[in-house]
Amino acid sequence: MKTGQIRQSLSGFYDVYADGQLYRTRARGNFRKRGITPLVGDQVEFDAPTQQEGYILKVLPRKTELVRPPVANVDLAIVVTATTTQEFSTNLLDRQLVALEVAGIQPVIYMAKTDLLSDEEFAARQQLANDYEQIGYQVIIERAAFDAHALAAVKAALAGHVAVVMGQTGAGKSTLLNHLQPGLDLATGEISQALNRGKHTTRKVSLIEIADGLVADTPGFSSYEVFDIAANELTHFFPEFVRLSVDCKYRGCVHINEPKCAVKAALAAGTVRQSRYDDYLQFYETIKNKKVIYNKKK
Ligand SMILES: Nc1nc2c(ncn2[C@@H]2O[C@H](COP(=O)(O)OP(=O)(O)OP(=O)(O)O)[C@@H](O)[C@H]2O)c(=O)[nH]1
Ligand SMILES: [Zn+2]
């Protein structure tokens, strides 16, 4: 028996990487009955008499599980964010960041399309990037799109991680992936369409090695409309609020109507970004109004 990682899945076959090579395997017959679908990214135990005829015996517990793309154990997401005025919104960025925080996936923000900005607009985006770095997020922003600096920064961020590239339709996900892996030849502007054809579309999903990391070759995207959390938990997914809230007077303070709230004090002092607080309030209301049922997974 060997242990390895599924690097590609295609029509019932799973290519498992172990000891420097790939083994083509299938899932055991009883997996389907038990409702187990191996995913790319899974760590598995398998038997393989030859490199062409292996069987997956067991899927080891997953750290994370994404639906789009269907990849397990992703621990990092490159959030491709188009910076042009028409496309950029802090609200969308914050929604993506909260969704990733909830999923337990570390975000890295990649500011795309900076070449389309005026110097003034670029300076404003740099300021914004600074604010997000203060919060604790890594932000990659370069004046020239896809120059050596920007790509080197992305590669360095990927090291040691299983990553996925995400972002809005048209943000530049495929373009970034193509730059990271020349030869990948993802059709730009077509990925979302392909994904939208329906959940039954069987797409090949692979993890590709880039520098010292692994990246899903299929970008992910989502509307990030609802978070699977209760409104009073939302504060846990704003890292700057987490740090401040130890000084809120009330335990469990949600920083809205409570007196002596450290988050509101920081907001008044200008150390918390107004747009972050506004987005927090909006998400809070959305979660409340949708009466999202809190179903804790563990
Ligand atoms: N000028 C400029 N154009 C870019 C940049 N990144 C992407 N684009 C263009 O923006 C359009 C959309 O880029 P894609 O890479 O297809 O975007 P995507 O996020 O993969 O989009 P979907 O597949 O629809 O989800 C394409 O026409 C790209 O050429 C950039 O950094 N600068
Ligand atoms: Zn508070």
Walkthrough of the structure:
Its cofactor is Zn(2+). The protein starts with a strand and ends in a 9-residue tail after the last helix. It is built from 9 helices and 11 strands. A hairpin with a 6-residue loop joins strand 4 and strand 5 (54-59). Helix content is 30%, strand content 22%. It is an alpha/beta fold and 298 residues long. Strands 1-2-3-5-4 form a 5-stranded mixed barrel. It folds into 3 domains: 2-59, Beta Barrel (OB fold (Dihydrolipoamide Acetyltransferase, E2P)); 76-216, Rossmann fold; 231-289, Ribonucleotide Reductase Protein R1, domain 1, CATH 1.10.40. Zinc ion binds at residues 245, 248, 253, 255, 258, 261-263.
Write a compact overview of the structure shown.
With 298 residues, the chain is an alpha/beta fold. It has helices at residues 30-33, 90-103, 119-135, 148-158, 173-180, 191-196, 239-244, 262-269, 274-289; strands at 2-10, 13-18, 21-27, 43-47, 54-59, 76-82, 106-112, 138-140, 162-166, 205-210, 213-216. Strand 7 (106-112), helix 3 (119-135) and strand 8 form a beta-alpha-beta unit.
Count of DSSP strands: 11
Indicate the radius of gyration in whole angstroms. 21 Å
Counting helices, strands and paired strands, the structural category is: alpha/beta
Please tell me what the overall shape is.
globular
Major β-sheet strand ordering? 1-2-3-5-4
> Multimeric state of these chains?
single chain
Give the helices and strands as they follow along the chain.
Answer: EEEHEEEHEHEHEHHEEHHH
Low-confidence stretches: 190-194, 196-202, 292-298
Largest sheet: 5 strands, mixed, barrel
Number of domains: 3
The CATH topology name of the largest domain reads Rossmann fold
Question: Whole-number average pLDDT?
Answer: 89
Hetero groups: guanosine-5'-triphosphate, zinc ion
User: What helical percentage do the residues reach?
Assistant: 25-40%
